[in-house]
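Schema walk-through. Below, the input block comes first and the output block second. Nothing else is stored per chain. Lengths vary across the set, and this one has 400 residues.
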Amino acid sequence: MSYAKVILKKGQGRTIKAGGAWIYDNEIDRIDGAFENGDVVEVADFDSYPMGWGFINTKSTITVRMLSRKKDAVIDEEFFEARVRDAWEYRKSVIDTSSCRIIFGEADFLPGLVIDKFEDVLVVESLALGIDRWKLVIIDALKKILKEDGIAIRGVYERSDAKVRQKEGMESAKGFIGDEFDTEVEIVENGVHYFVDVKDGQKTGFFLDQKNNRAAIHKLCKDKKVLDCFTHTGSFALNAGIAGASSVLGVDASELAVEQAKKNAVLNHLEDRVDFTCADVFELLPELEAKGEKYDVVILDPPAFTKSRNSIKQAVKGYREINIRGLKLVKNGGYLCTCSCSHFMDPDLFAKTIREASVGAHKRLRQVEFRTQGPDHPILWAADSGYYLKFYIFQVVDEK
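--- output ---
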């Protein structure tokens, strides 16, 4: 079988030469041979030196997504099964796999594909045209591999409804892959039970990337008064409750999320100590400060305030403001847990913004630890698009 060949411009391809996974449209000199968007193509440097194989899509600014650096790679069903097997074996080594992310796009050398496992249900998010063509092959391979470990998957649901698909010239896709099933799935993480709505919940239904960070707050919360901001379906709040907090207030602007959080509190028999309210966090925190409220632990887990480089300045203002307001509510000697899930809010900028917030709040910060996303969301160096979550725990002390 003959493949089209993508030839890079002289001096271009720095990203993939450094270990990255993407080739942009302005890096390409020419494309030799016939192809359809979504096809596998060979990639070569300007001097014909072989660079590997990838998916092509000329409708996207990211024109080629690399699959393999090996000159003799054969991209077929066996290739994808081997990729999936590697991903699963890795997860078994590094994290509790009852619910976890099994496929994390470029970091698992399967660009544009995310697959989350919630107990015996898989949720699939396909974001690139090339990988979309192989989606069913990959799902079948994963079900086969999981079955070898005694895990029978009862259903697969697709959540390929992110706007980024439009950049690939693709329409949104949402629905069952195979037989229909009950899309409310009960999972257990860190001893906390949750109902996960894989059909209508955010993203794939639940934010698995904070699993270890949620566990990290347990030691801080026993017999403490806790405020969890942007609680979504209650994950940090419920972890505080399970850890023995005396009282927890979770806040979110989504009524649907708050109702789900309350349901999860009942599921864990925590409704007497963990309460939730629907409110705008930016509006509520000054009201709590005016009332003289103070908390032993304040948790800030906001949505991404920026999803592009163009809105960084506005995002910085948002992160600074919410951290100032959160810090003012922490008792002297208490703790602030604060994070950003925006890829474009890089670690240095986020640290600078928190530092500015501490000055604005007249507080001193003692860093307890810095964490990032769970190991089932591995960070592939050089392909920095997969590094997005920054999570700090600080002790907050008054000026001395």
